[in-house]
Amino acid sequence: MINIQFAALPDRWDKYRDPLLKAFEDADLKVDLRQDHQPSDVDYVVYAPNSELQDFTPYTRCKAVLNLWAGVETITGNQTLTQPLCRMVDPGLTQGMVEWVVAHTLRYHLDIDHWISHQTGAWSPMCPPLATQRHVTVLGLGVLGTACAKALAGLGFHVTGWARRPKTIDGITCVHGEGGIAQALEQAEIVILLLPDTPVTTNVLNAERLAQMPKGARIINPGRGPLIDDDALLAALNSGQIAHATLDVFRIEPLPVDHPYWGHPNVTVTPHIAAETRAVTAAQVIAENVKRGETGLPFLHLVDREAGY
Ligand code: NAP
């Protein structure tokens, strides 16, 4: 019997219990899945970083901590978490992110807000350009950035992607490192941030980089709040350097009611809903990793603690 501790906020148990049990059964794994194992009996922890469990010291025989979230910035610094840590790569979450990013990109591309707010009776045709005439940049070419970049390239956009290391992706202009970001930004009419929050990516969009973008560019941030220097973005929005920003993630969540983003005419705030882990598909990923752990195969989606993602 494999003892699996489920450590997440209480309402998650109802959502994940049955999909997890089904996925373990499908994977032919005999498990005892509970929220109340003795820590020293636990083989694997299925984990949400906002759960009560923060001290992993008593989990002496735990072979891996399997995160339910894609982002790991709140746990990479936990010194008690010495077990292998796997982040969530879930096809359902990825699909959700692609849909959200494509929708907001098309909103900007087709200037949909203009038509929604101009129901005045004035017949003033203004045909938008085609995607093939539009440059879009995706900062971050990991699981989510690559999926979004490919979907946008599939629609015909000129897509440039920026990552830490060199990459080759069909149909995408890939640039990397410090030298690559200026190239990624200089033609970017729409910039999508899908980077992790690490000490190196903090304020990656700062005043200098916002100024490198074409005047009137738009920003879509479903990555993490600290990727953007908020004061610099507000200044760029107020000067017109940046025409509009759609922000799903913030330094403080929920976004405080008195934050200038709320009510700013050129900002759309969404409450961290771009892409959620989907229980059924995520459960299959967790079962696959437990199976790997039990058969001596390397875990999938291991976090590189040094890089922070
Ligand atoms: P991932 O697969 O780990 O990809 C991260 C990407 O960022 C990689 O391409 C990586 O480059 C790049 N990167 C990291 N540090 C960099 C640096 N210093 N300079 C340039 N590029 C750098 O992550 P993912 O699954 O795509 O997820 C991305 C982020 O989305 C998550 O970390 C999370 O914060 C966010 N997210 C948000 C939601 C939401 O609902 N809003 C949902 C899920 C995830 P390499 O490829 O060279 O390593």
Question: Keyphrases for this structure?
Answer:
309 residues, alpha/beta, 5-stranded parallel sheet, 8 helices, elongated, binds NADP nicotinamide-adenine-dinucleotide phosphate
Report on this structure:
The protein has 309 residues and is of the alpha/beta class. It folds into 2 domains: 2-90 and 277-295, Rossmann fold, CATH 3.40.50; 91-269, 3-Layer(aba) Sandwich (Rossmann fold), CATH 3.40.50. It contains 8 helices and 12 strands. It has helices at residues 10-26, 91-109, 112-116, 143-154, 177-186, 207-212, 230-239, 279-295; strands at residues 2-7, 31-34, 44-47, 64-67, 85-86, 135-139, 158-163, 172-176, 190-193, 217-221, 242-247, 267-269. The protein has a 7-stranded parallel β-sheet. A 5-stranded parallel β-sheet has the order 2-1-3-4-5, covered by helices on one side. Strand 10, helix 7 and strand 11 form a beta-alpha-beta unit. Helix 1 crosses helix 8 and helix 2 crosses helix 4. The longest helix is centred in the first third of the chain and has 19 residues, at 91-109. It is elongated, with a radius of gyration of 21 Å. The two termini are 31 Å apart. NADP nicotinamide-adenine-dinucleotide phosphate binds next to helix 4 and strand 7.
Tell me the strand percentage band: 15-25%
- Helix tally equals 8
Gap between N and C termini, in Å? 31 Å
What compounds sit in this structure? NADP nicotinamide-adenine-dinucleotide phosphate
Domains, number: 2
What's the gyration radius in Å? 21 Å
The CATH topology of the largest domain comes to Rossmann fold
Mean pLDDT equals 97
- Number of beta strands: 12
Helix content: 25-40%
CATH class of the largest domain: Alpha Beta
- CATH structural architecture of the largest domain: 3-Layer(aba) Sandwich
Q: Which sequence of SSEs, written as H and E, runs from N to C?
A: EHEEEEHHEHEEHEHEHEEH
What form results from the Cα inertia axes? elongated
Strand order in space, largest sheet: 8-7-6-9-10-11-12
By secondary-structure content and strand pairing, the structural class works out as alpha/beta
User: What name goes with the CATH superfamily of the largest domain?
Assistant: NAD(P)-binding Rossmann-like Domain
